[in-house]
Amino acid sequence: MTRDKVLLQLLRNLLEEITEKYDSLLQLKEQQAKEFFNLATKDPLTSLYNRYFFFDFLKASILRIQREKEFGKKIALVFIDIDNFKQVNDLFGHEKGDILLKEIAEFFKREIRKSDIIARFGGDEFVVLFEGIDITKESIKERFERIREEFNDYFKEYQVSFSYGIALFPDEVPNWEDKSISDIQKYLIKLADDRMYKDKLLRKEKNSGGRDGALSSNRGGSR
Amino acid sequence: MKTSVVSSTSPTLILALEEIREKLKKEPDFLILAVSDKYPEEYVIPSIERTFKTENFIAFNALDAFKDSSLVQGVTVCALYFTNSGDFSLKEVQDYRDKKSLKDIISFINEKKNWIHLFIGSTNESVDSFVNYLSEGLKYRPINNVIGGLASGEKPKVFTKNGIIDRGGIFLSLKNFSFQIGIALGFKPYGVTYTITKAKNRKIYEIDEKPAPLLFKKLLKGIEEREKILWFIPLYILDDKEGYVATIRTPAKLTDEYLEVHGEVKEGTRFKLSFAFPEDLLEESKRVAKEVKEKIGSIVDLIINFSCTARQFLLDDKSEKEPEIYSSVLNSHLFGFFTCGEIGPDRGLKKVKLYNETSLIVALREK
Hints:
The structure holds two protein chains of two kinds. By secondary structure, chain A is α+β, with helices and mostly antiparallel strands. Chain A has two domains: 1-41; 51-214, Alpha-Beta Plaits (2-Layer Sandwich). In chain A, 57% of the residues lie in helices and 15% in strands. Chain A starts with a helix and ends in a 17-residue tail after the last helix. By secondary structure, chain B is of the alpha+beta class. Chain B contains nine helices and 26 strands. In chain B, the strands form four sheets. In chain B, strands 14, 15, 16, 17, 18, 19, 20 and 21 form an eight-stranded antiparallel beta sheet that branches. Chain B has a six-stranded mixed beta sheet with strand order 1-6-2-3-10-11. The relative contact order of chain B is 0.17. The mean pLDDT of chain B is 94.
């Protein structure tokens, strides 16, 4: 092998090594970026989005609707609170409670379209965001009544159910054009939360003798 | 000062020395001899003393030596004739680990901070701690007057009137001289950054937490010759910002367990692989020669060049070009040799460092 050929082979090997190393570094960076994104946006227990990501997403949706108001797009924000979850923790312990929360998250993920956003708001509270042109309160309600039926059946072993409340944007936010994004977000959350609470009380009264009679509210306690 | 650089390639040491004595005509004040290790080491001192009838010499093994712009595999002698106030002093370090003699030398150099101190040492792993110890001991600033190189060959040694030194070296200190040091490198770092994760002294066991030999075996894929080829892509140390030039570590030995380099490395050190074409090295030598000339002026009595063996391997058929550049730019006789490590000041002139794959020059003029 002549000196020139040796040198060429060495440079070729060096180039291969650099390429290989760069590839593995890039893969590592991508993996790290993914992990950082997940850490920043996902709830570690349920792997659903966390409330911070939810607020970011909600803000982006509100801005989009404001920008493209001529298209008549709407947002439906659904606030969900798990009924009787406290009893699960008390009866079966927190470890079992965590397992149940994971199963509940999986259940909602299956029921909600991939294009919609579901997040763990805190404790046993979840929020769902729908965006579209043909959204009405009735259509969402119809959908959630069906989901609740399935939920009750799926988790009957634990005697848990859920209450929910819906808030629509822009229909239900008065003078929204004069409000800041943050105020609109707060308003929508409060509206949906209040309605969820009403739903909980209503069902408690209505079914005081049945399974839902065991409904208890831990409103605000787990946030 | 007048200087004469002469050589002989006679196969017999005594004949080579006699030939040189003939060429010198006049008896010099001091002799520096680069002796190929093809000559039996036990003959070196008696042959020099018998031929030149002097004790004012230092000799050492060198694979090749430079006589102006020629490479010589034999004996090359640099003869010094002081014509003004120049003088010399010799200080031996029999063993790099001998702290007592080191302390004496350090206090000598600290006292003689206006002298130029030339060091020639045997090649031995303990030289790393010797250089560190020396560096820490020097208290004056700027440290711009200590330069040297390690002898080269199979088992390189230093020879003085007191005997053979195989674990230490000798300082030749010159008094009443103007001098200017230059350090040429020419390598550029390429590719990704690696971290040395396991190392001891000169041996690197792990790089990025993987066995170090893996990387270098990959780089040698399809190449029959081993370690020497790695001299083309030495380790360019990124964390050491103090070097006059970047600190390079030249691969010395590759085993299944470790990569040994010519100089100490520490765990956590980051490096890139580097590369240089012969033209890059020569371009850098030219730049350094011009810089030295600008600082010392147009009259130079002698240039001494310590140039790494690996550097010369890379320069190949252009290896005579480097001393040629130095002697033509500085317009002076040049004496030098291939080294296995070079010693010179750091960037801030606060320390002395052990370099690899560099070419160090010192231009001298007697006051």
